[in-house]
Amino acid sequence: VDRLEGLAKLTGRERYVDDLPLADFLWGATVRSPAPRGRITDVKLGPAVDWSQFTIVDHRDVPGPNVIALIENDQPVLAAGTVRHVHEPVLLLAHHDREALRRAVASVTVAVAPEPAVLDFRLPPAPEVIQYGSDNVLKHLSISKGDVERALAAAPIVVEGTYETGAQEHVYLEPQGMIAQLEGGVLVLRGSMQCPYYVLKALRVALARDESQLRVVQTPTGGGFGGKEEYPSTIALHAALLSLKSGKTVKMVYDRSEDMAATTKRHPALVRHRTGVATDGRLLAQDIAVIMDGGAYVTLSPVVLSRGIIHAAGPYACDHVRIDGRAMLTNAVPFGAFRGFGAPQTHFANERHMDRIAARLGLDPAELRRRNLLRDGQSTATGQVIRDGTDRVALLDRALSLADYGAKRAAHAIHNAASVTTRRGIGIATFHHGAGFTGSGEVVLASRLHVAGLPDGRVEVRSANIEMGQGTLTVFTALAAARLGLEPSDIVIAEADTWRVPNSGPTVASRTAMIVGRLVELACDALRARVGLDAGATGTAVRAAVRRWHERHPGEELVGEAVYQRPPGISWDETTYRGDAYATFGWGAYVAEVQVDLRTWQTHVTDFVALQEVGHVLNECLARGQIQGGVAQAIGWALLEECRWQDGAMANAQLTNYIIPTSDDLPPIRVAFVENPYPFGADGAKGLGELPMDGPAAAILNAVAAATGADPCVIPLTPERLMGIADWGSRIADSKSEGTAP
Amino acid sequence: VSGQSTIRNPQSAISITFSLNGSPISVEAQLTDRLLDTLRYRLGLTGTKEGCGEGECGACTVYLDGLPVNSCLVPIYQVRGCRVETVESLDPATLQPLLASGATQCGACTPGVAMTACWIREHRELLTTHSIRELLAGNLCRCTGYDGIVDGIQASLETDA
Q1: b/e for A438-449, b at 16 or more Cβ within 10 A?
Q2: In terms of Cα–Cα distance, which of A696, A723, A720 is closest to A708?
Q3: Above 70 in pLDDT, residue A730?
Q4: Backbone dihedral angles phi then psi of residue A97, each to the nearest 5 degrees
Q5: Phi-psi region of A476 (alpha: psi -120 to 50; beta: other; left: phi over 0)
Q6: What is the pTM of this model?
Q7: Given A171, A256, A625, which is nearest B148 (Cβ)?
Q8: Angle, nearest 10°, between helix axes A620-635 and A696-708?
Q9: How open is the CA angle B51-B55-B58, to the nearest 5 degrees?
């Protein structure tokens, strides 16, 4: 089935928040902090502007507590007296003329008496920069299995490594945008978002407004990748405050530069590994320390750290594992949710480290992985016993076969001995990704979903889970149609409007198809039961039964409801971090081939094989698209995308100098699936959206290591960085001795 | 055109006449207005998207006298007497191969991609010297990894070859 809204998108008919027709509205804009930390001494409105024409809002206009409600309520809606990061919102302005508004924003001066700022999360904080607790640690988490110290002491070989990953900007092509509008006494927010109920909660708290006077509606969302998980609460509150003060409709749409500079990014991370290994390559002990840069407020860092450390030991069997994780406060723009949610950082470190271990042992990296990949019945770092029938070694071997691994390695050896200008290499990564919320998260969410029979016999799916390109509308439609024996044209997906849809949870964590899709199926069953249909009834019989029900119950709602139930046999202890961290995992085996140009030190990915087991694949085209897009985003993170920092601000907040991959930078990404239906996911599906972010960076750097003999441990591996670590001496010697080669 | 007097005062509105999707049109505009904003906010043609506002992403691609351009970089006075064509002018039937290949996900880059895809289709002689991937490199997409787009363009070339 083709993407349902696909033709509307191709023809430009799909209307995003900035496309909606609006009459008599004001544009809203944000005045931001120029400094990373300090006391606001003055906010001066410039003399060249007639300020009586503007709506002006500051922290004193926040009716309720001045907090953006999330995990910890420490982030203000608008700075009150102090600032903790550059670009922190201080003042809001609204005006009907966007150009006049831009000039007005530029004419406001926020004076800040600077205080010492912490701008490097890797260093222990000095006393004068402590801003959270006694040590700036936003969250400390640990995992312990067996006795790591004893196992390390007894291990014949210990391999150490330190790995670093940089911040990454989401670059969803549609920037953040929100419209606030008073309809009667109800404040309605329409905008680009992944989690309407997160926005609703943030509005309820900071506006001290009853939920009956609030309504949040998602507009078609032009990409999210996590960047529209928590951030939309901020821009929604800002638009709401301007609307309440002016009494008018207010639209805020960030331009690209503001979006890149002021909104969340992927957490930078530093990961240290100390691994005890047997001479045959078996992992005896994994000692792992993870530090993440949380930025200036808590936001989602505790849960990003949590997912990061749970995945940090990889999909391998090891009896002795210790993982220590810290998220540190810095005076940077808060880092936030981004596809993979902490796991890409720790998987990068672990998979790069596996190749370092293989090199130390003189073992083929594939063979090292074969010897350590989890077999059914073995357990992960948290003690979760894996018993899903997936053969992870066979998965790796199939990926190697698809990539022609052995033949390529032999060909590369010949090429590298002969070529003066290029080096080729192939690298692999094996990894996993837990689908759905971590630990007891799904139980706490207790997602609820409705399927309604309409008077005309059609059926409407009512969920808060949104379409942002990943295919929710198409997948939910197909699931409901199949479950009810109807045609896709008989199914309507309700707009994600908090007045119309129950809270089926946020559109994050690779949970929508697997978990919420399952609720669609169960709610369809409940609807069947309500209208008294037997299991075999399809098509006309279903539509007729729904119509008949409405004839007998005029004016009433016909709703089938489903509420999340934890699959049997799952248990998690939040205090000890032991147990089943996820109901299920997707498994990946990726192979990257690269060519490095020794003149420019540019790395070009020349082939990419992405093989995964993600349960039953619901829609091949959509699933393949998720994998290809995720791999492309990860290739950007690995090689191109560098946030350059200057005094706590992103200095390259433009697509001119923050480089994401173009079509010409990428090879065809070859995707294949091994299908092993997961009994508790919708039609056997597991989550898959984040998995492809986890493997590519390590596979690519492993390939660069194979190609060049360098040992790169930091991404993005820009040409400058690779040149810095490459062995110039041997290269020059090589090229002299091979001067006649092509 | 009384260009001289209007250029002296950048705040004054001038009347711009051009051809839009095959029909003549006149708009009152400021000299500094962008073609992109004129299309979107004045003429209601919101199919053309703003992705970056600096000519990097291609989401705002339109044809100006038959050539694809970033409409965020075109001052409105530059289109006087020109032919402007937007995504709204495309025949949906020609976009079917792109739909089937998964060329669109979130859709924000898609109108620009569709414009470039159709332009490649109409100028297939370029493919003797350039690859589809090279010709598409002015359109950033963050969702698809480009395979769905490249496959769709390839398929559309084959269907009406």
Answers
A1: bbbbbeebebbb
A2: A723
A3: no
A4: -105, 115
A5: alpha
A6: 0.97
A7: A625
A8: 50
A9: 55
The CA dihedral of A716, B103, A477, A492, to the nearest 10 degrees, is: 110
Strand, coil or helix: A570: coil
Helix, coil or strand: residue A620: helix
Residues 2-61 of B with CB under 8 A from A: 40, 44-54, 56-57, 59
CB A511 within 8 A of CB A518: no
Q: For residue A425, what are the contacts with CB-CB under 8 A and spacing of at least 6?
A: A412, A416, A593, A594, A596, A702, A703, A704, A705, A706, A707, A708
Here the ipTM equals: 0.96
How do A25-32 and A249-253 pair as beta strands? parallel
Could you read off the pLDDT tens digit of each residue along chain B, which spans 161 residues? 333 333 444 567 899 999 999 999 999 998 889 999 999 999 999 999 999 999 999 999 999 999 999 999 999 999 999 999 999 999 999 999 999 999 999 999 999 999 999 999 999 999 999 999 999 999 999 999 999 999 999 999 998 65
Alpha carbon separation from B41 to A93, A703, A707 (Å, rounded): 21, 49, 52
Asked if the C-beta of B146 comes within 8 angstroms of chain A's C-beta atoms, the answer is yes
Q: How many angstroms separate the CA of residue B122 from the nearest CA in chain A? A: 17
Q: What's residue B80's pLDDT?
A: 96
Using alpha carbons, list the distances in angstroms from residue A299 to A71, A125, A134, A267, A337.
6, 20, 19, 12, 9
The tokens for A660 are 């994401």
A16–chain B Cβ distance below 8 A for any pair: yes
What does the pLDDT average to over A499-507? Answer: 98
CA distance A691 to A631: 9
Helix/strand/coil for A609: strand
Sign of the Cα torsion A435, A505, A191, A5 reads positive
Element (H, E) at A16: none
What are residue A422's DSSP bridge partners? A597
Q: At residue A665, does pLDDT exceed 60?
A: yes
Query: Could you tell me which chain B residue has the CA closest to the CA of A339?
Result: B143
Interface check for A177 against chain B (CB to CB < 8 A): the answer is: no
Longest dimension (CA), chain A: 91
The C-alpha angle with vertex A22 and arms to A20 and A26, in degrees rounded to 5, equals: 120
* SS3 state of residue A139: strand
- Residue B77 three-state SS: helix
Q: How far apart are CA A729 and CA A720, in angstroms?
A: 17
Give B100's contacts in chain A (Cβ within 8 Å).
2, 621
Asked if B49 lies within 8 A of A174 by C-beta distance, the reply is yes
Residues of A in contact with B31 (CB under 8 A): none
Question: A389, exposed or middle or buried, with CB in 10 Å at 0-12, 13-18, 19+?
Answer: exposed
Average pLDDT, chain A: 96
Strands, E, within chain B: which ranges?
13-20, 23-30, 61-64, 67-70, 83-85
Q: First and final CA of chain A: distance in angstroms?
A: 49
DSSP state at residue A283? E
Q: Distance (Å, rounded) from C-alpha B109 to C-alpha B144?
A: 10
Q: Which of A222, A255, A664 sits opposite B107 (nearest CB)?
A: A222
Above pLDDT 70, what percent of chain A? 98
Q: Copy the structure tokens of residue A189.
A: 């927010």
The CA distances from residue A547 to A41, A180, A451, in Å, are 66, 37, 15
d(CA B154, CA A135): 57
Residue with the two structure tokens 């589809």: B132
Which residues in chain A are closer than 8 Å to B56, comparing Cβ atoms? 654-656
Whether residues A625 and B146 touch (CB distance < 8 A) is answered with no
